[in-house]
């Protein structure tokens, strides 16, 4: 696998999984003069140069507490604003951050939506470009068949709340407003694609009532 970020859609780039964030995938959205980094890529020379060559970073969005990585170094390098849901801002005590409750409009085309469950402040980033792209962090990740699902793990904060957040996304969007999903983890199951097409159809097909009955030992 290449160690360099690459385009997955026009103006959207995916970084290789980052060990600092337990193998999570970060994305860069290039939107005119606003460059939005969704979670933290590995802070190495290649990624630093990649971001610099594309005009730096305007906003760094942390979609969940596990995506913080080298946020401090990224803000120091680019002077970017950091956005995180208010319940997890305490994890960045020495940094200048912007917080939000339910939603935050970054630009006329891009919003951040609170989707609690995986973690208390878990959120997704939605871009109206490309027919609608949802950056789902660890809220929705691909399974072994490459289909987006909520995944209950030992780190899940509140499983039923996570399913309610999935239902809210399903009710918020439709096939005309949600075309792609860019997950923040498990991207190896996409076999190099790092993007899930027909995202709304997959979201609508989830049997949330059956998932609600999922139990575990934690």
From TrEMBL:
Residues 23-185 form the Metallo-beta-lactamase domain. It comes from the Bacteria. InterPro entries: Metallo-B-lactamas (IPR001279), RibonucZ/Hydroxyglut_hydro (IPR036866). PANTHER family: METALLO-BETA-LACTAMASE-RELATED (PTHR42773), SLR0630 PROTEIN (PTHR42773:SF3). This is MBL fold metallo-hydrolase. It comes from Floridaenema fluviatile BLCC-F154.
